[in-house]
Every structure is written in C-alpha cells, then in structure tokens.
Recover the amino acids of this structure.
C-alpha cells in the first residue's frame, strides 16, 4: 500500500448507524481510494439496545456486526489497506469488543495488529456518587432533575472527542474501538493525528469536524435521503462518502469511482444542516463550529469542495446520553381495507384500549395511529380522498408487564369481534418488551477521564 500523502488524508465512512448496508465498508476497501475507514454505529436508541444486551450478558454491549465485518476485511488488512479502522462499535463494552476482534485477527494470522481501545465515557457507576457530590444532571430539554430516575439508569455515557482517538493512533493502533464519542470526532481524530494539529488549531479542527459531520451518516452525503433522490444514479449501488481532508482543514467530499449516487453542492448542503440546532454554533467536544461561514463549491463530477469553516473553543462540558428503564411496551399492526377504512381502523384501536381497561388495566401511555390517513406527520399530509386501505398501529407503554401483555392479547380478537375488513393477523401476537427512556444532560469535562489502551490482537485475545 502506498502511504497516504502528508498533505491530504482520505477518510471514508462505511456506516451511518447500526443496521446500515453490510457491504458498503467492503466496497470502500475494494475501491483502494481510502486511507482510513470509519464506522459510525451509535445512536441513542442503539445505546438502549446495547444496555439491554449487556444486562443479559456482561460480556456483550458492543455492536455485534463489527467483528463479522472485521473478518471480511482480513484480506485488506493483510494487504495493508486501509492504514486504520476507527469505529465506535465498542459501544458500552469496547474491551470485550477488542477481545472478540483480537480472536478473529489472531485466528487469521494477524495477531500482531495493534488494537486501541478508548474508554472512560461510561459514567453509569459514578452518576449517583457525582449527584451526591453536588453535580446536577438536569434534562437538557425539560430541565427536570435526574433524581427520580437515577436508580433506573442502565447506561450513561459522555460524548468523548477526537483526541483519545488521535492518541491511540499515535500509539500504533491500526484498529481503534471506542465507546460513545461525538460522531464527527471519528473523522477529526485520524486527521488530527495525521497532520499533527494542535488542540487550539481552530480553523483546521473546525474544517475536519465539518467533513466528519458531512460523512457521519453514510450515504446521506451521496444521494440518500436527498429530496431530489430520483435524479441520482443507481442508489441500489450507492457509493459511501470519502472526505479528502487537507492540512489546512479544507476538504473535498466524494465517493468511490463508478459507484452509484451523487455528490453535489445541493445534497451536501442538505447534509450540512442535518440534525443541527443552531448553525452558528455546532457544538462538539473538540470545537464549536460556525456552519454559517462554510462555503461549498463543485470542483468536479461527484466532488464538492468544503472551505472557510470557522471554529471556537468548545465548552467545559461533555454531553451525556443516559438511558433508563421505563417499564414495558408493545406495538401491533393490522391492515384495514374497504369502505370507511380509516373510521374502522380508529374504532378498532379504541376497542383494544377499552378492552384492556375492562380487563383491569389502565395503561400509562397509548397511541392509536392510522397509517395512510395522515398520522405519520399529523396535521400535515391528510389524503384528499378517504383511503380504502390503511394500517392500524397501536402502541402502548406501562410500568407493569402484565398490563402490556394483556394488550398483546387483545389485537387478534378484533378479527371476529371488530369492524369488517381487518387483515394481517397471521403475524401473531406482539410481545411485551422492555421500554427505555432517554435522558440527555451535561457533565463537566473535569469529571471525565478518557483512557487509551493499545495492545496487539494477540494480547487482547488472551486478556
């Protein structure tokens, strides 16, 4: 493999969430056009799923898809491509993920490959103590104190930044597994390591952060989710994004040659403001970025140049994603067809809730939706004509599992004791599942100590 240019680094992202296209990372590796592969798996919902897995087995809690992907990437790693893989697949248990990955590499003759683990983001064992010491973890949206749910927390993770990733790479790691880090930091870390940027080099840090933000959601930067999606080419074989970052922090967003999709100023502009609250202050652990200064220009087919990013020092806080137990939930669906389909569906939904009440359970929360009649975006997209085919979806939550289980048993009886035209019951009863709540809050950076550990795959396997 040719070593990456010292003036640019080509960082690709092959996953925008856990469940993204399984072949996208391999296609990026096959392209031969990247130096670093990043994989961004974590979202708030993902943390809830991982916490549930960890509760069943303390060795779990990481993204199970990544070790399987690593096994497929062995031929490329053996050939020296890419120079590194950086991912937050470690989830709530990056050390266990490293052990599993170490086993895979050792069994494939790559036991000497260094794996770096970034941890220190997990605050679950410290939250109660910090609260007693006078820290507050008020909900960022509601302002409520965390005290009433502190005993129900199942995970609490600070969004770490790029510098522990850069430290792991400086320590020789070829694979870096992190827990919860800010999405854009997965890109900034390798760039900062490659160019040797200082922690106060705000223009460069801002530029690479913008590049990381643009590629963090995978194919959204290459034609996916674009409002003119029908003007893109071959989304079935869409290429995932590559950020070619220069020493000054400017970048070019592109995709592998010959792949499907599109990279244009228009769809990159959409991605630039995706999930952004205040464009003048996009907060990350590493730098606050003013996105209003960013300039986009088409520099060639499927190549958009990103310049003039400006940055300021970040706050003295990390954002924390906390997840807590919130009872039990279930959701069931039935198709409803024929005349007055919407009215029949809504009546059937009310019947289910009423029957659960008659059985002795007043559900804490319930939602009856009529999909196809405007309920996906309530009040905005009502159909012009009365629909003749809709899907009834009823979702409930309650602290009592028995209440939710009773709801699960009330959908099927509608087939013979509800309105006519119901179908879809062959899928069986829904099942009660644990419900989780999300609690975003802040923690002073002084209360969090990121740690970096680099060992060979062989050593992680033997751990």
């Amino acid at each position: 493999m040719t070593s990456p240019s010292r003036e640019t680094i080509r960082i690709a992202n092959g996953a925008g969430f856990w469940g993204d296209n399984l072949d996208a990372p391999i296609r990026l590796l096959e392209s031969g056009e990247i130096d670093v592969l990043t994989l961004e798996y974590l979202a708030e919902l993902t943390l809830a799923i991982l916490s549930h897995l960890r509760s069943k087995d303390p060795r779990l809690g990481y993204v199970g898809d990544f070790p399987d992907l690593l096994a497929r990437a062995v031929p490329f790693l053996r050939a020296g491509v890419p120079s590194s893989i950086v991912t937050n697949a470690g989830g709530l248990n990056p050390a266990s993920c490293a052990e599993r990955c170490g086993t895979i590499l050792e069994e494939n003759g790559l036991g000497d490959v260094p794996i770096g683990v970034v941890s220190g983001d997990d605050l679950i064992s410290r939250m109660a103590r910090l609260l007693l010491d006078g820290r507050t973890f008020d909900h960022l949206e509601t302002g409520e104190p965390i005290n009433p749910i502190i005993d129900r927390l199942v995970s609490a993770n600070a969004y770490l930044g790029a510098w522990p990733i850069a430290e792991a790479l400086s320590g020789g790691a070829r694979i870096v597994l992190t827990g919860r880090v800010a999405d854009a930091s997965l890109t900034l870390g390798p760039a900062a390591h490659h160019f040797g940027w200082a922690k106060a080099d705000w223009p460069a840090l801002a530029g690479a952060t913008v590049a990381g933000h643009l590629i963090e959601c995978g194919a959204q930067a290459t034609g996916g989710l674009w409002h003119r999606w029908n003007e893109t080419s071959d989304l079935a074989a869409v290429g995932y994004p590559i950020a070619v970052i220069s020493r000054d922090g400017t970048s070019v967003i592109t995709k592998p040659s010959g792949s499907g999709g599109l990279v244009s100023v228009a769809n990159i502009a959409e991605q630039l403001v995706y999930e952004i609250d205040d464009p003048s202050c996009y907060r990350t652990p590493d730098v606050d970025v003013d996105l209003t200064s960013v300039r986009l220009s088409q520099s060639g087919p499927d190549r958009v140049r990103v310049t003039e990013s400006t940055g300021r020092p970040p706050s003295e806080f990390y954002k924390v994603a906390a997840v807590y137990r919130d009872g039990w939930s279930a959701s069931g669906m039935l198709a409803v067809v024929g005349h007055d389909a919407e009215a029949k569906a809504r009546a059937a939904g009310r019947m289910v809730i009423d029957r659960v009440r008659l059985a002795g359970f007043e559900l804490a929360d319930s939602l009856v939706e009529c999909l196809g009649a405007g309920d996906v975006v309530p009040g905005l997209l009502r159909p012009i004509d009365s629909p003749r085919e809709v899907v009834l979806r009823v979702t409930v939550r309650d602290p009592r599992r028995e209440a939710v289980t009773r709801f699960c048993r009330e959908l099927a009886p509608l087939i013979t004791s509800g309105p006519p035209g119901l179908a879809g019951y062959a899928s069986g009863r829904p099942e009660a599942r644990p419900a989780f709540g999300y609690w975003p809050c802040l923690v002073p950076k002084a209360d969090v100590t990121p740690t970096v550990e680099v060992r060979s795959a062989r050593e992680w396997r033997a751990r």
User: Anything to note?
Assistant: Residues 326-439 form a domain with the Alpha-Beta Plaits fold (CATH 3.30.70).
